[in-house]
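hey can u check if this looks right to u? its 151 residues, i copy pasted from the old doc so theres a chance i mangled smth
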Amino acid sequence: MNRFQNLDITKFLPHRKPFLMVDDVLSIDDEHVATSFKIESSCIFNDNGYFNEVGLVENAAQTCSAIVGKSYFEDDDIEGKGTKLIGFISAIKKVTIKECPKVNTTIISKANLKSRFDTDAYSICTLECIISQDNKELVSCEMNLVIQELK
């Protein structure tokens, strides 16, 4: 059984509906994460029946932040009570959007950590993300994030 099946992602991301673009963490470790997101018709990034480019980039950023954000929590803290985090996209190095997915479909996003620099106050990281639907690549991107623990 997937230990993340009942994980409430809102305990680990500061986003809330309507701006939450990740439903489930499918797998995660110190360098990789996979998430899923069902695109509902009520989604704020619904653009004439398609999940638009801005929504795709935000989904990638929220997926990517889970890798570094995970390190701020104890492994057994599945309730997200150990800390509160805030994150920012500091740079989008590249993004290739091949296709926007339709509303009422599910996308899978997989991210890999390329580099990470930690200070006492924050972490800066570079990540790559691929978003797909039915094993068809929709988006590839590379971005920098800044993750900071709120004291």
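The two ends are 35 Å apart (CA to CA).
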